[in-house]
Design brief:
Oligomer: single chain
Helix content: 25-40%
Distance between the termini: 22 Å
Low-confidence stretches: 124-129
Radius of gyration: 13 Å
Largest sheet: 6 strands, mixed
Strand order of the largest sheet: 2-1-3-4-5-6
Order of helices and strands: EHEHEHEHEE
Structural class: alpha/beta
């Protein structure tokens, strides 16, 4: 089961669109976390065993500095995506990143590539697909 938590800066409609496909997706704004700190959002994702999807580089930085092994995060480095476009992007890349995310990883998606780093940062088996 795919379980996501979308950060505040992402379109809320993405949660509905992916939910219609059977994904378990929450948006931070829909669960009272619209003004929550990045740390609180990461803590929620960790407790609820959700992958956090964000535009924010701070999520990856916090995980790297803390040495945490979870939660897995996906940073989308493509701004201005509509809810539909973000849903399509996640559907397209999920088969390529889901195994790594299941094991604890940080993914960065750009228009050109996907980078993966296993958690905790510093493990010797980091790779790029």
């Amino acid at each position: 089961m795919i379980r996501l938590l979308l950060d505040q800066g992402l379109p809320r409609s993405t949660a509905r669109l992916l939910g219609d496909l059977g994904w378990d997706v929450l948006h931070a704004g829909d669960i009272g976390m619209a003004c929550s700190s990045d740390s609180d959002i990461l803590d929620y994702a960790r407790r609820e065993r959700r992958v956090c999807v964000t535009l924010d580089a701070d999520f990856h930085a916090q995980l790297a500095v803390s040495g945490a092994a979870s939660p897995s995060t996906v940073r989308v480095r493509i701004e201005g995506l509509s809810g539909f476009a973000l849903a399509e992007l996640l559907k397209k890349v999920w088969p390529m990143i889901s195994d790594a995310l299941d094991g604890g990883a940080m993914a960065t998606i750009t228009e050109r590539n996907i980078r993966l780093h296993h958690l905790p940062i510093g493990r010797s088996d980091e790779y790029q697909p």
